[in-house]
Specification:
mainly alpha, 5% strand
C-alpha cells in the first residue's frame, strides 16, 4: 500500500506521541498503520554501499535508495508528535490519568489480538515464546526504576536501547528509560531546549540522538533477519510483549513510593495495579470503559485500512 507524504507524517506523529508515554510503543503504531515493513527496510538501507550509489547516481540515487521522502515525512511527523506528547499527553497523564491510560490499555489490547491473528498456525515453540515474552514484559512493568545520571556515555547507551525498543511493538522505549531512571532526565532536557535553546540541553539531546541512530542502524537489521527466518515465532513474542505490558497501562493504580520532580513536587515513582473498588478516589468507571473501547476500536479501524503483509519485512 502506498501512502502520500501527509499520511506518512500523520502516522509518524502518532508514533512520536506514543513514544513519549511510558508503556506505549511507537512500533505498535507502525504495525497497525501498515508502515512497519517499509520503516525497517528504509532504515536498513543505510550502509556503506550508499557511497557507491552516491558516486554513480549522486544525491538523487541515495535519496531513492533510502526511500528519502518516506523517511523525511515520517521523521517530521514524529518530531511534531514528540513535541505534542511532551506538552500535551503529559498534561493529560497528570490531569486525566484514568481516561488516557484506559485509552492506551484498549489500544494495546486490541493491537496484541491483531498481531496474534497474523500468525499462520501456532507451534509449541510459538506458544513458549508467547509465554516467556509475556512474563518478561510483565516483570519489566513491576521492576523498580533505577536512579538516572547525566553522564554522556550513559545517555548514549540509553538512546541506543530506547530506539531499539521503539522498533519492538509492546516494548516502550520511554518506559525502559523510566526503568533506567533516565525518562525525566531526557524529557527534561528536551523540554528545556525547546523552551530556552540552551547549549547544555542541546548537548544531552544531541548525544541521546546519536545513540538513537546507532540503535536504528544495528537493531533494524537484526529484527529484519528474525522476521525473515522466524516469522511466526517473532510475532508470538511481540504478542507476548504487548500482553505483558498491559499491567503498566492498567488505569487504576496505587502509589507505593513517590519522588520529587524538577519543581520540587512529590509525584508517583512506583505504582501497583489495583481493582476499581480498591482505588483511592473516584474510579470513573464509565469514563474508563468508554475510553478503553475507543482505543480498542481505533485499532480495528486502522486494521481495515492496513495492508495484509504489513508484518512481514521478509516479503
Amino acid at each position: 500500500m502506498n501512502f502520500n507524504w501527509y499520511q506518512i507524517a500523520l502516522r509518524g506523529m502518532a508514533m512520536g506521541m506514543a513514544e513519549v508515554v511510558p508503556g506505549v510503543s511507537g512500533g505498535t503504531i507502525a504495525f497497525i498503520t501498515g508502515i512497519y515493513e517499509k520503516l525497517l527496510e528504509s532504515i536498513k538501507a543505510f550502509h556503506p554501499a550508499l557511497i557507491g550509489v552516491f558516486r554513480k547516481e549522486g544525491f538523487s540515487g541515495v535519496w531513492k535508495a533510502v526511500n528519502g521522502t518516506f523517511l523525511l515525512s515520517l521523521l517530521v511527523g514524529m518530531a511534531v508528535g514528540i513535541v505534542i506528547g511532551i506538552f500535551g499527553i503529559t498534561w493529560l497523564i497528570e490531569n486525566q490519568p484514568l481516561a488516557i491510560w484506559s485509552f492506551f490499555f484498549g489500544l494495546i489490547l486490541a493491537s496484541s489480538i491483531w498481531v496474534s491473528r497474523q500468525i499462520s498456525g501456532w507451534s509449541f515453540i510459538d506458544v513458549i515464546g508467547l509465554i516467556l515474552a509475556t512474563a518478561l514484559a510483565f516483570w519489566i512493568t513491576v521492576a523498580s526504576p533505577a536512579t538516572g545520571t547525566e553522564a554522556l556515555w550513559f545517555v548514549l547507551i540509553c538512546g541506543t536501547i530506547a530506539i531499539s525498543a521503539m522498533l519492538l511493538p509492546g516494548i516502550s522505549g520511554s518506559f525502559l528509560l523510566l526503568l533506567m531512571g533516565m525518562y525525566t532526565v531526557i524529557i527534561g532536557h528536551v523540554k528545556g531546549f525547546l523552551e530556552t535553546f540552551s547549549m547544555d540541553h542541546l548537548i544531552v539531546v544531541g548525544v541521546f540522538a546519536i545513540g538513537c541512530l546507532i540503535g536504528l542502524a544495528g537493531f533494524s537489521r537484526v529484527l529484519t533477519w528474525i522476521f525473515r527466518h522466524y516469522h511466526n515465532l517473532a510475532l508470538a513474542i511481540l504478542t507476548g510483549f504487548m500482553l505483558g505490558s498491559l499491567n503498566r497501562l492498567w488505569p487504576w493504580k496505587e502509589v507505593v513510593t513517590t519522588r520529587l520532580n524538577s519543581h520540587g513536587e512529590a509525584v508517583p515513582f512506583i505504582e501497583r495495579s489495583v481493582l476499581p473498588g480498591s482505588f483511592q478516589g473516584n474510579p470513573q468507571l464509565l469514563t474508563v470503559l468508554l475510553c478503553g473501547i475507543a482505543g480498542f476500536a481505533l485499532v480495528w479501524l486502522m486494521d481495515s485500512r492496513a495492508p495484509k503483509d504489513a508484518l512481514d519485512p521478509g516479503k
